[in-house]
Design brief:
151 residues; alpha+beta; seven-stranded mixed sheet; 4 helices
Length: 151
């Protein structure tokens, strides 16, 4: 199977990750009594809340941080490639568990970041993985922040 799978058949987990699911579920059962489940849209503490971004994995959430009139969005695995995720947000990488929902989540996050000028923090983008998003026709453009060594 190539990087992009054109199938519209939703899967719970990508095939390469399915073998990890039983072990992951067993590990979570061991710590259930020491955890608190949170839902999308919840405020964890003042200024830090969750944003629904399922699609890459079931239950995936991003974290929205607000302080002094500024916002940052930690997007986790919702955006996974500097070129493809922005220029072709409707493409469906085979590693997204529910490819159609991943497209919806990706577009919603990119629209929100563009409209509200929210700084993105992205694990899968080149260092430092921090920047802004601009509209580019029907797609988007990643505008990375430059690392400041003088802090």
């Amino acid at each position: 199977m190539g990087l992009l799978e054109r199938s519209r058949t939703p899967r719970l987990l990508p095939g390469t990750l399915a073998r990890h699911d039983p072990g992951t579920q067993a590990a979570f059962r061991l710590i259930t009594d020491r955890t608190t489940r949170i839902k999308p849209g919840a405020e964890i503490v003042p200024g830090i809340g969750t944003v629904e971004s399922r699609g890459h994995t079931p239950g995936h959430m991003s974290i929205l941080i607000a302080s002094n009139g500024e916002q940052a969005l930690v997007i986790g695995d919702a955006i996974t490639n500097q070129l493809i995720s922005f220029a072709h947000p409707d493409w469906k990488p085979s590693y997204d568990g529910d490819m159609d929902q991943a497209v919806v989540a990706r577009r919603r996050l990119l629209d929100q970041a563009t409209a509200d000028r929210i700084l993105l923090l992205a694990y899968h983008l080149p260092f430092p993985g921090v920047g802004n998003v601009a509209r580019d026709g029907s797609a988007y453009r990643w505008i990375p922040e430059h690392w400041r060594w003088d802090l």
